[in-house]
Specification:
30% helix; alpha/beta; Rossmann fold
């Protein structure tokens, strides 16, 4: 695996990202990873995001994590979810043009608020073939658009998540259209510390199967 620090354009802003490429000959399927809420310390070096990246490249799939506007070395400032969705669009365009990534085999994953920013874009963008949401904050974002999404979907929640009641999560997932996979993973809370490996393996297996 090799990691390459990159920059890409979102509107008038320059954002930073990290591209991880597996060993071997590409192009590879690729997955874009979106980090948690910028105002609560979320960034592309988050424990969950990094664990997902490592598991994906071992699968082997390329992965791309990036900092939303105003985070780390990315220009700009927090834009209340509107600009962040533009950043997701820009990341999709960037990854779709990479020679190391197969343009017809790209997935999109978001953790916590990252799922709220990313999935509405990925649901409508034909370049995105599959979606994953880790700890989707159902009370903070409207995820009802997924009721019309026929792309493969994976939704995961820790059984001890203190922000998202498990019963609400399960009820929401049951009503989603196929194809879908969903699960509450025993013992984990919203931050997944100590449970990253199992979570990452589950996400990597999903994308390996659908991309």
């Amino acid at each position: 695996m090799k990691e390459i620090a990159v920059s890409f354009v979102s509107g008038e802003l320059l954002l930073e990202g990290m591209l991880a490429i597996p060993e071997g000959t590409g192009p590879f399927p690729g997955v874009i990873l979106c980090h948690p809420h910028p105002l609560y310390g979320g960034n592309m070096d988050n424990n969950v995001v990094c664990s997902l990246s490592e598991a994906l490249t071992s699968a082997p799939l390329a992965s791309f994590r990036f900092n939303f506007r105003g985070v780390g070395g990315s220009q700009g400032e927090f834009a209340h979810g509107i600009g962040e969705r533009d950043d997701v669009k820009a990341a999709i365009s960037f990854v779709s043009a990479l020679q190391e990534v197969h343009p017809g085999r790209i997935g999109l994953a978001g953790y916590s608020a990252g799922a709220g920013f990313a999935l509405p874009i990925g649901s409508d963008d034909a370049r995105i073939k599959a979606l994953a949401a880790v700890s989707p904050p159902l009370a903070m974002f409207d995820f009802d658009f997924l009721n019309g999404c026929l792309k493969p979907k994976l939704l995961l929640l820790g059984s001890r998540d203190n922000l998202i009641p498990a019963h609400r999560f399960l009820e929401f997932c049951r009503n989603l259209p196929e194809p879908k996979e969903y699960e509450t993973m025993a013992g984990a809370d919203h931050f997944w510390r100590g449970y990253e490996a199992g979570l990452a393996a589950r996400v990597a297996a999903f994308f390996t199967g659908v991309l």
